[in-house]
């Protein structure tokens, strides 16, 4: 019996340590597949052996599920624990004190819980490795455009970025690029309203062609042009339904979906770009100042929670919390009280990439 227990402990260690050990590692998709495969085999062997050793069955399943899943959830929930350092740049003067005259940098807080997650700012080669062969779709309004810009800036050099920036910022248009070196395709889809995002996801479903990473968000246009939070809420619920029907394993369907551990299903990673902090007095038109008030912003936020589209309320999308990032960076990080300086979106992109790392290593 001692032998059985030791074997059980060994199996538990492998199951727990393989995914945890991968946490600091940058994996391309192929490597990810390899390690999910290795993990799957380990699990399968474990599952087949454990019936012969009933005393360790509970132990193995409890340890593996609790430790791995909890560790993953905790780290995902800590991803936005960042601090900013905003200082006057050399060109600063009281007459020249725009946001561009402040240097800003950010980093994850050094609390022990956050350090334990070993978040890291991915370098260009890390990010290229992670996204090698992927199809990334970023859809939404100007906030989404800044996310697309930040992601491309991480992957390409500044010479390439000059021309891309021009094309990407053509008003209200879509943009597509294939980064040949890493075979990554990125689509930016201009989709100012939630209904546009719903149309987009229905299109993926119709064509049975899904991106690997889907990043989307909307709200500002609706707030400005409709100023009706409950209508926004209705549109979010439609989007949620559409995304849920897209995903092979949805939170609601659970056991109806493919059985975990059977043929692996490829499921897109879906992110929500939250609205930024709005600084009413800095907004650049009368209509914006009138309609995009703090109260309206609060009502839109409540609808977002209520729609259950976000992971934190049981939905499928992981929030990139631009509000918290922009709030913490502060008034010196924006010129118009709505669009923030590039570092805010860079932070959001790094948070997204870290979430992808966590999810791809520890998905069982
Ligand atoms: C920023 O500049 C304005 C004038 O452009 C001035 O009134 C204000 O005091 C300056 N603020 C700081 C913090 O220097
Ligand atoms: C991307 O993957 C391909 C094939 O797996 C490989 O040949 C190439 O070197 C990779 N590129 C990068 C930048 O990792
Ligand atoms: C987005 O949706 C609105 C309202 O449903 C529609 O008028 C507009 O044409 C759509 N825009 C795009 C780019 O699909
Ligand atoms: C707001 O939207 C809801 C739902 O679409 C609609 O029933 C209501 O009449 C709208 N309110 C206003 C003031 O337009």
From TrEMBL:
Its main location: membrane. GO terms for biological process: xylan biosynthetic process. This is Pmr5/Cas1p GDSL/SGNH-like acyl-esterase family protein. GO terms for cellular component: Golgi apparatus; membrane. It comes from Rhamnella rubrinervis. PANTHER family: N-ACETYLNEURAMINATE 9-O-ACETYLTRANSFERASE (PTHR13533), PROTEIN ALTERED XYLOGLUCAN 9 (PTHR13533:SF31). One of its GO terms (molecular function) is acetyltransferase activity. The chain crosses the membrane at residues 6-25, 32-53. It is found in: Membrane. It comes from the Eukaryota. Keywords: Membrane, Transmembrane, Transmembrane helix.
